[in-house]
Amino acid sequence: MNPKIILKEPSTRFFSKRKNEKEKVKIGFTSTYIFIVCIISSLLLYYVWITNVNATKGHDIMKLDDITRSLQVEFEKLNVKIAELESLDNIIESWNAENMEDVEDPDYLVIREGVQYVYNN
Predict the structure, then answer these.
(1) Residue 76 to residues 41, 73, 88: CA-CA distances in angstroms?
(2) 3-state DSSP assignment of residue 97
(3) Could you say which of 4, 30, 48, 58 has the lowest number of CB atoms within 10 Å?
(4) What is the C-alpha R_g of the chain?
């Protein structure tokens, strides 16, 4: 080997057009792959988020249904209590019944459709 010949590394690398095009395609495939993985990941996160939101709303709706049912039961109990208090037996037994007078010769009104009524006393 000749000591005067020194192999130096070229400062710029030479690539052929084919190799440059191949590198571009490789970079294109890689970036496309990364883009697709990012899209799929974001769609997965969106799906999990939407599922969580719907589950939370469903839980809130179930709570409101329970409250509605309990209020309906309470409403029915109050209606029964009102009916008891307004019943004839309770009215007769109340202390106000002592102050009431019996009605003599009551007038009754019967409502019929298509008939005009005039009260004559």
Answers:
(1) 53, 5, 20
(2) helix
(3) 4
(4) 46
